[in-house]
Amino acid sequence: MPVLLASMESSEDSLENEQSPRKGKHGIPIPSFSMTTCTQDGISTATAEPNSLSAAWICGTCTFQHSGTDKQHYLACEMCGTPRASSHIDAMNSSTGSGRKTTTQSTSSITRNDPPQRTQQATKRPSSSWGSLQPPTQQDIRGKRKRQKALDAPPPLLDYLVVLDFEWTADDRKKMEPIPEITQFPSVVMKLVEKKRGLPLEYHQQQPQQHDSPIPLPLDLTMPCVEDHRRLRQDAIAISAFDTFVRPTLNPILSEFAMQLTAITQEQVSTASPMDEALQNYMKWLQSLKLVDKDGAKTTGTTWCFATWGDGDIMSTLRQELQYKQIKLPECFDRWINLKCDSMFPKHYGREPRGGLKACVESVGATWEGRAHNGLVDSLNTAKIVRHMVQTGFRFTRATRGLDKDGIPFGQKQKQAATRSFARTSKATNKK
Predict the structure, then answer these.
(1) In the chain, fewer beta carbons within 10 Å around the N or the C end?
(2) 3-state helix, strand, coil in the chain (%, to 5)
(3) How many domains does the chain have?
(4) Contact 332, 403 (CB under 8 A)
(5) DSSP string covering 108-129, please?
(6) What are the residue boundaries of the Exonuclease domain, all occurrences included (predicted)?
(7) Is residue 67 in some structural domain?
(8) Which domain holds residue 42?
(9) Can you give the pTM of this predicted structure?
(10) Distance (Å, rounded) from C-alpha 292 to C-alpha 72?
(11) Considering all CA atoms of the chain, what is the largest pairwise distance in Å, rounded to the nearest integer?
């Protein structure tokens, strides 16, 4: 089967084949194309015009027509990059109507800057061609899986919260001089549990847990939430409680206002232990729960903190009374959580704790039990707020207020210094 090759001849070769060669502008001869066919019978040459194009082959993928003699040797489509199959070459050769063995050679005597002829072993187009497009995989859609780093994990929960609410001497007609004194010293210990590897085994029991608490605890603080335990991620369970009355020594007689407000009788405080003994018994109770050591410091390996409904219980009342009576403040009282702080109740529920403690307990769906302004009753009901906050996702991780190494509340030194400076400035101004 004959195969055509395009060769450009010089004007001198054209003069040999044609008697009157064609000339262009300024008399310059126009070269012509000669088609030379090498067959077994001999060599035949056909001359073609320079502007004439012959169809070489058509891509079977994008149907792009490769025209021109230079493109008949392309092994891939210049439009889509699809490799030119051998069947395409056979189809093009068979269109000439001859199946004989042929050899082709170029008879051009002029050196041309034609691209080198490609062979069947030529490399394919790069993978960016259309023919290499593939549908995206699920990994391409989801992306690489990110490993959770330690810094991305939330801070760990405290192990325990000790909820307390003191009651102290008061009078609606005059200020208690020199200082108010604590008359009731209660606390409730709440154990915080988290569902990292499942809640504790006893949490799935429908019976209330048995504790060694000398004071009975309400069921809504000890009974597991069986109905919601599947979706529950964390919880707070009461494990023990403490309560004792304290005998005031600076103002031993209670006022009518204090007895009506707290329901504490004169007989209850008169027969009670003074502050130093009551505090010692309280520390023994914390030590029995392995929360403090014999020196009153928090034990290592266990994280816990006091929780109060305001800063007045520890920062003002307890600290000032022990300081006045020259009783050492235990080290464990240097940090506490104020549940009314902006980062606690208001942040979690999106509202201010208005209406008093009872209104706030009922606002979270808990049931108020007992008489208000009793220290133990207030502590137990405050613990219900703590449990609801934990169950609804709040994480108790750190204290909100504390004392420095000198026993002074954080920020109070600067406040006192500013007050003294303002007083000196005002006095100097008045003298002038």
Answers:
(1) C
(2) 30, 15, 50
(3) 2
(4) no
(5) --S---PPPPP-TTPPPPPTTS
(6) 160-395
(7) yes
(8) 5-105
(9) 0.62
(10) 93
(11) 146
